Amino acid sequence: MRKKLMAGPYLLWMLVFTIVPLLFVFYYGFTSSDGAFTFSNITAIFEKIHIQALGLSLLLAVITTAVCLLLAYPLALILSKSAAKNRSFVIFIFILPMWMNSLLSTMAWQTILEKNGILNQFLRLLALPDVTLINTPAAIVIGMIYNFLPYMVLPLYVSLSKINRNVIFAARDLGASSWQTFTRVILPLSLPGAISGITMVFIPSLTTFFISGLLGGNKVLLIGNIVEQEFTMAYDWHLGSGLSLVLMIFIIINMVLTAYFDRSEGQVKK
């Protein structure tokens, strides 16, 4: 009974700030402005502008997640093998940007990538041609990688650090090469961490709106920008909620995959 009472504040928090808002989203998503039940807010995702924005959002989210995974895996491997003193310092360096407001850090990238920004000024010093990155999908990907890379590194590092070193030594003693040891021992055992990192990067990359708003301007429209505009500019909460429900499908898929691989990890440990 005492444990149940201690869980009371958490349950109240979940009810007020999670369950109730979700109920409102479902209500507005399945009703019209006059309160009648409708699927039009959901099927609106198939309109040309919405489906194009969703497709571009999925593409950029996949690219961001793949690049973050490729960058994070070697670093996580190095961290898991390094001395404790060096490991703590590198982890601190990666966590440090998370202490800063992500909006401010994205605005800093806006200053770096703009036409007369720091990057082009540096290229001019080297007598190299300017590059046009601001207000392009490439700029959005750069901003998302910078903001979400720590969310890929940390789960991978935790997963790799839990691997028993004796298992790796045993594989090498049995004649496995470095590549075979990685693909057949390290990679399968670290897969749950990779899945968690993919989830933590893919979902915010898919639903982001402030990064694309600052680095993409009005030239690159993602599904997150459309949802944000429906709520804040068009004041069409019904359509905005309907499009949000479509995005929730991808969140649910990621949750199912994460639960599946977590369960697989538990079975392997047993």
List the helices and strands and how they pair.
Blueprint lengths: L1 H5 L1 H22 L10 H4 L4 H34 L2 H12 L6 H12 L4 H8 L11 H25 L3 H9 L4 H30 L2 H7 L6 H10 L4 H33 L1
Could you characterize what this model shows?
The chain is an all-alpha fold and 270 residues long. 78% of the residues lie in helices and 0% in strands. It is built from 13 helices and no strands. It has helices at 2-6, 8-29, 40-43, 48-81, 84-95, 102-113, 118-125, 137-161, 165-173, 178-207, 210-216, 223-232, 237-269. Helix 2 packs across helix 13 (237-269) and helix 4 crosses helix 10 (178-207). The longest helix is centred in the first third of the chain and has 34 residues, at 48-81. The protein is globular and about 70 Å long. The model has no long low-confidence stretch (mean pLDDT 88).
Form type = globular
Strand content: under 5%
SSE series: HHHHHHHHHHHHH
Distance between the ends = 31 Å
Q: Which radius of gyration do the C-alpha atoms yield?
A: 22 Å
Structural class, please? mainly alpha
Give the overall average pLDDT.
88
How helical, in percent, are the residues? over 70%
Given the structure, what is the number of helices?
Answer: 13
Let me know the number of strands.
0
The major pleated sheet works out as: none
Spans where pLDDT lies below 50 across 5 or more residues: none
